[in-house]
Amino acid sequence: MISLNRIVILVVVVTLAKTRTSTEAAKLPPEFDICKRNDPNINTCLRSAIQKAIRVMKDGIPSLHLLPTDPLDITRITIEQGRNRPVSLSMDLRDMKLRGLSTCEVRNVSIDIPNKHVEVDVFIPLLTLDSNYIMDGKFLVLPVTGEGKSVGKIENAHIHVNFEAKPEIKKGNEHWNVFRFDLTISNITKLETEFENLFNGNQELAKPTIAALNDDWSLLWDEVRPAMEIAFGTVLKNVANVIFSSVAEKDMLPL
Q1: If DSSP codes are grouped into helix, strand and coil, which group holds residue 224?
Q2: Taking a C-beta distance cutoff of 8 angstroms, is the pair 241, 181 a contact?
Q3: What is the pTM of this model?
């Protein structure tokens, strides 16, 4: 939940699909594993199938008009926070590239087909975020200001995805249309950041500030995590809908 002294403004504009010229439903590519909807071990089957699909999607899937998914592009994340907090940073992150999704380990899947409800747990050893940044504010007792290139590294992220879809009929076939997609990130073991051109390149000020940000990384993570969860969730929801819009349920989960 976003508290009253914290405002998170998020703008995500990504292009994940090429323009589809055909109106015919697509099929899953042969590299994908298919799970039968009546399989009593469907959750186990889907865990393996999703794991394989994530690897395949890394370089894009032309037959589904899906562009590469690792890295994922996030156009902008803006975080505005109220004053009177130990960490009160205004951050504008633009042209972000999120790398590492294809290295994930899918650990658990649970599906309720009639209600089109899916939950997935994954582990990612390293997520890297490259972006252009503008930052101003305070971290503990240190003033922080700068503009330039930034790199963030999130180590050992446990991600839980919980989404629901509604039916959408296309050419007589039922497709899934995801309308709710919640993503949470927990139990990370490190957030390492590097900001070029802090204090307009003054290294006497920049070095101790970056050291403080990395020494007390959990404080910084508490501030940026909600916006990151919303951003990553929005992008992955778009990925899911590109696939579901292309492939009918009967081909996604056949009898």
Answers
A1: helix
A2: no
A3: 0.90
